């Protein structure tokens, strides 16, 4: 009975995660102030210190709710990694060539394998769903943007970089 209950719970989590991926709505594009969006989202993470390096004023055409979910996912992942090493998280942005480039950098242990980062349902976290980064990339692409993750070259940790058109 215990095995059946465990498999039923796992299947329920899988179905919930799958349905989230399958029904990402088209973004409702409205003007979004980058400073306000990033500043309010950064405040939601309370487990580790998140340093905010404010960039230049910028307004983008985007679905703020979707971008908040994307940034929450990136900051939560960075905070999870930083907790492993008692490190921190840095968030900032800049404008370059008609785009806003936003980064989330952590002082965690880094990524052991970057090949499967955006594979649906792949996770290295106990209890993780494996949809956070996949959903985040879908949101970025639905906004005409790009999301990349890589290990830092200057120090221990990881860097997520989101590029969106202005």
Automatic annotation (TrEMBL):
Its UniProt entry gives the catalysed reaction(s) as: ATP + protein L-histidine = ADP + protein N-phospho-L-histidine
Q: Where is the signal peptide?
A: none
What's an example of a GO molecular-function annotation for this chain? ATP binding
Q: What is this protein called?
A: histidine kinase
Q: Which Pfam families match?
A: HATPase_c (PF02518)
Where would I find the Histidine kinase domain in this sequence?
1-166
Q: Does the keyword DNA damage apply?
A: no
Please tell me whether the keyword Methyltransferase is annotated for this protein: no
Spell out the PROSITE patterns in the cross-references: HIS_KIN
Name the enzyme group at the top EC level.
transferase
Q: Which residues form a coiled coil?
A: none
**Which EC number(s) does UniProt give?**
2.7.13.3
Q: Name one GO biological process term.
A: phosphorelay signal transduction system
Task: Report the source organism.
Answer: Candidatus Acidiferrum panamense
Name the InterPro entries for this protein: HATPase_C_sf (IPR036890), HATPase_dom (IPR003594), His_kinase_dom (IPR005467), Sig_transdc_His_kin-like_C (IPR004358)
What UniProt keywords are attached to this protein's entry?
A: ATP-binding, Kinase, Nucleotide-binding, Phosphoprotein, Transferase, Two-component regulatory system
């Amino acid at each position: 009975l215990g095995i059946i209950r465990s498999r039923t719970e796992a299947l329920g989590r899988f179905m919930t995660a799958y349905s989230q991926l399958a029904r990402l709505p088209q973004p409702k594009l409205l003007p979004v102030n980058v400073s306000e969006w990033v500043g309010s989202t950064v405040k939601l993470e309370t487990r580790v210190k998140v340093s905010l390096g404010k960039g230049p004023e910028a307004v983008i055409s985007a679905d703020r709710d979707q971008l908040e979910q994307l940034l929450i996912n990136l900051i939560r992942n960075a905070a999870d990694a930083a907790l492993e090493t008692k490190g921190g998280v840095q968030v900032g942005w800049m404008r370059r060539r008609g785009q806003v480039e936003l980064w989330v950098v952590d002082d965690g242990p880094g990524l052991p394998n970057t090949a499967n980062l955006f594979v649906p349902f792949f996770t290295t976290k106990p209890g993780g769903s494996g949809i956070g980064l996949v959903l985040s990339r879908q949101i970025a692409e639905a906004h005409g943007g790009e999301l990349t993750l890589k290990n830092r070259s200057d120090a221990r940790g990881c860097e997520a970089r989101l590029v969106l058109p202005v």
